[in-house]
Amino acid sequence: xxxxxxxxxxxxxxxxxxxxxxxxxxxxxxxxxxxxxxxxxxxxxxxxxxxxxxxxxxxxxxxxxxxxxxxxxxxxxxxxxxxxxxxxxxxxxxxxxxxxxxxxxxxxxxxxxxxxxxxxxxxxxxxxxxxxxxxxxxxxxxxxxxxxxxxxxxxxxxxxxxxxxxxxxxxxxxxxxxxxxxxxxxxxxxxxxxxxxxxxxxxxxxxxxxxxxxxxxxxxxxxxxxxxxxxxxxxxxxxxxxxxxxxxxxxxxxxxxxxxxxxxxxxxxxxxxxxxxxxxxxxxxxxxxxxxxxxxxxxxxxxxxxxxxxxxxxxxxxxxxxxxxxxxxxxxxxxxxxxxxxxxxxxxxxxxxxxxxxxxxxxxxxxxxxxxxxxxxxxxxxxxxxxxxxxxxxxxxxxxxxxxxxxxxxxxxxxxxxxxxxxxxxxxxxxxxx
Length: 434
Ligand code: ACO
Hints:
Layout: E1 4-8, E2 17-22, E3 30-31, H1 36-40, E4 60-63, E5 68-71, E6 74-75, H2 76-82, H3 85-94, H4 100-111, H5 120-124, H6 133-147, H7 157-183, H8 196-205, H9 216-228, H10 236-245, H11 251-262, H12 270-283, H13 290-298, H14 319-334, H15 341-354, H16 357-361, H17 369-379, H18 386-406
Antiparallel strand pairs: 1-2, 2-3, 4-5, 5-6
The structure holds acetyl coenzyme *A.
Acetyl coenzyme *A (ACO) is lined by residues 266-268, 270, 297, 305-312, 362, 364, 367-369.
């Protein structure tokens, strides 16, 4: 029996049941209720996973009250200031930061797998030009599994590693292709002499007609966006990837499922929605109209939310939002956009919301997406591409989480239970005349 236990008593005559409590290294311990159904014939009920840990994980830890985010034990602030995105990919994938030799090998491996299969070009032509890039990306990544029939066996560690390298390396190429297709420009092949982020910028913004020089400030800003979005515990898209891969499907298809989930405005779509909100508010009168807008947000009949505010776990300032705000200053300063009206509006709106009792009492603070939209727009990334950039960043988190699940000795196919509240057994009555 575990050192600590929890006992559940019932008022309906069911005998009490005792459960072990497992200790977490930091954060809440967990009551292991796996035997509940066998012992009591009852399920727990927790829609939205408000109090349920779906797995044990060693990858990412969030302390929502402190506003702390750790990847493999390292604070996000440390990583954002001292590492690049590929270092963070290595950390998430293998558990430790790379040594200089490991770093060189890993970077070279990624940079030499950046080209997408040439056949993808023909596949792309089936999409409408005005399709949302997330629709295109979900399709493209799903299709990638068809291009790599050797990636089918998720239980083979070599297959998983090869798929990981392919996904990390090729996602920027696919995202850039989705963008170039939508604006009718030729695809730019990757340039393996550039950094990961530099390559993304080049594939998005270069044309074959002109020399393209990567702006180091924008390169660093994009790299930071990627680091800040690389993983985030058991969020909706990560849980989707885990659940999808738990059936034994191939890893690339499971990542496509994560991309589809990320698209939603309550999740990865929030930065696009946030920028659209700021643009609309600006068009309606900007700072002058903040009071009216906040009243609409607070009106429970309006269903309007202050996008980029609030988080299921962070009930204090999102640490990623602080870093993004800093990057926002750096990028706008570099581009001479310090007086950008949207940025000014965002800062004023943030200040007013943070002083408003509605937001204070509900512990609603800016999340990373509040500023990442402004940074991306300044870099030149159009709003409809924001979530695709997020997907590109989060791919490494999804892969690391998938690997962790598949190699967990207690791994089982994910199969939530339910409380059925529909019709009881009934039978079809013969139709008159039959
Ligand atoms: N604006 C206004 N009110 C809000 C907001 C918001 N952005 N977020 C939460 N609330 C209110 C709710 O209406 C609710 O009020 P009530 O208690 O009076 O009913 C209360 O705060 C609690 O909100 P829930 O929706 O229950 O909180 P939950 O943890 O389920 O939701 C979520 C978190 C979905 C992120 C929510 O805060 C939201 O919709 N935010 C805007 C979208 C957004 O920015 N998403 C990005 C998330 S971060 C990411 O994916 C990287």
